[in-house]
Design brief:
Layout lengths: L1 E6 L4 E6 L4 H8 L4 E4 L7 E5 L6 E7 L2 E3 L3 E6 L5 E2 L5 H7 E8 L9 H11 L3
Antiparallel strand pairs: 1-2, 1-7, 3-4, 4-7, 5-6, 5-9, 7-8
Amino acid sequence: MRAYLIDPSTRTISLVDTDGELLSIYALLDCQLVTTAAGQPNGDILFVDDDVSESEHDAFSFEGWTIYSKALVLGTDEEGESTTPQTLIHIFEDQISWLGKKVFDPNVAFLSWETSNLIWVGLFPN
């Protein structure tokens, strides 16, 4: 399947091939622990490094979130399996702001059930 690799150090978004398996995601992101961020109503998600040190990193912002690592954009199907993203690559190019070097600043977000449920409504229509 295809995926988008967002690399803030080179300020590029590249089309890459992957099998969507966890070990492949680790290799593409050059990390050993991942989390997901910025889930989209169509099932597209960003996989990011979940073990970022509290030091300076190349960063970018997407939908108000600051990401301090590379990110891999994959889609998901009704069963949660990885797929090629539905969102066109140029949409990400238009919505990403490159931030340069930034010191990691952890944050916590609390979403209401109604807010987080909007993602699932789009994934699993009646």
